[in-house]
Amino acid sequence: MPLSFYSSITDNALLSKGVAIEKKKGAKCPNTVVEGRNAVFLTLASVWAKSLGAKEVWTGVSEADFSGYPDCRAVFIRAHEKATRLALDWPVKFVTPFIHMTKAEEWALAAKLGILGVIENDTVTCYNGIPGRQGLSAQLGVRRGP
């Protein structure tokens, strides 16, 4: 679903080309915050779920790695779930299996399940579309190679 309009209503390092990812001293969160993005994603996914007759929407948010992202907190997820149920008159449930896991715990779980290679090679991070492990390194501020 095209969401290219988003960069016209908010400015940040994920949507603006050439902006370095950083957290300025004294800032509540890094400049990677895309204001309200999980609210938008969950709303759109819920509308689609209702059209399919589905009653669950799964999301990979984690408040354990919370670094200023207000829409990654359990309190937001539960509040938005309630509002979405009211808005759609549909008993949607937001499932958050990683809500209390750190990134390291998530990667360890993927390794335990035998799918670490999928994560490393076949997924794309929101950090400027950088694939797998490179994306994680960018997110954590780790530099690999030249």
Could you explain the architecture of this structure?
- The C terminus is likely disordered.
- By secondary structure, the protein is mostly helical.
- 12% of the residues are buried.
- Helix 2 links the parallel strand 1 and strand 2.
- A two-stranded parallel sheet has the order 1-2.
- The radius of gyration is 16 Å and the shape is globular.
- The chain has 2 domains: 94 residues, HUPs (Rossmann fold, 3-Layer(aba) Sandwich); 45 residues, no CATH class.
- Helix 1 packs across helix 2.
- Helix content is 39%, strand content 4%.
- The chain is built from 5 helices and 2 strands, in the order H-E-H-E-H-H-H.
Notable traits:
146 residues; mainly alpha; Rossmann fold; 2 domains; two-stranded parallel ribbon; 5 helices; 4% strand; disordered C terminus
Overall 3D form? globular
Roughly what is the average pLDDT, rounded to an integer?
79
Radius of gyration: 16 Å
The CATH class of the largest domain turns out to be Alpha Beta
Query: What is the chain-wise order of helices and strands?
Result: HEHEHHH
Spatial strand arrangement across the major sheet: 1-2
Q: From the helix content, strand content and strand pairing, which structural class follows?
A: mainly alpha
* Proportion in β-strands: under 5%
Q: What's the number of domains?
A: 2
Number of helices: 5
The poorly predicted ranges are 140-146
CATH topology of the largest domain: Rossmann fold
**How much helix, percentage-wise, in residues?**
25-40%
- Second CATH tier, the architecture of the largest domain: 3-Layer(aba) Sandwich
CATH superfamily of the largest domain: HUPs
Number of strands: 2
